Amino acid sequence: MELIGLNDIRRAREVIAGKVHRTPTMTAASLGKLTGMQLHFKAEVFQKTGSFKPRGAINKLNSLSDAEKARGVITISAGNHAAGLAYAASLSGVKATVVMPANAVKSKVEATQGYGATVVLHGDMKGLLPKMQEIQQERGLVYIPPFDDPYVIAGQGTVGLEIIEDVPAPDVVVVGVGGGGLISGVAAAIKESSPETKVIGVEAEGATAMLQSLQKNTLVRPETINTIADGLAAPFVGEHTLAHVQRYVDDLVLVSDDEIATALGLILERSKILTEPAGAAAFAALLHHRFEAAPGARVVCILSGGNVDRSRLKAIL
Predict the structure, then answer these.
(1) CATH fold of 54-143, please?
(2) Structure pTM?
């Protein structure tokens, strides 16, 4: 399988320019002191739709023919890809349908509908793909993968380009892992630009599709998925994302829901940034020493999204 490279990611940046924000990479001195690191947060919480997802969605839609755009597009998502695709589709005048789990975060459903997409609520994460395929075949829609697609991965990789520009040759970059689109693109951008930088992936203990797939060297669907980090609760990973993680990622570690909640609270308290649980996972791994880094190392944690509704936030904190 051919992996994406820097040229693919640079082309993606040209495609998305002016349609998304160039988000800040911010120092986090207080939390850095707490962990003994020179800490930076890549704040995708300030991205359009509140997460990194529009980057890949816009790049993917740009690759479609006019005939494909006219048919309309469909995807599955717990929330952030839903809003990201809905936003991207609205820019191009493309009709979008999104199949989301019945228990999806209310604010994410409302945001997706607000960008003009049709939302179909159905079952749990494991049942989304069959329902999506049923609707796709009935209506002749074009499937836009949430993560396992070269254009999507290249779009997400633009996050990595921005990190390298803001923090040249960081010692460690830490990325949350759901289906693997973000870490695939970011790791490719980082490793092709700064080979000595370590890239660490972080999964929730209750959603380990990537870890199990790495361990068995084949795609594995976990029997159960149970985590507060719905953005990491992918029911599977893909061939593209598994291949990129195998090639570019140095280590994959796990954090518990309690550790994620603690990290989320500290980021809010010390840095005044509200993340969703998936967005706090990278810092949770640093905070709870899930990987080794030399004292004073320059560490960049990606805050991948900030879409958490009030009721869930209250329960987490």
Answers:
(1) Rossmann fold (3.40.50)
(2) 0.96
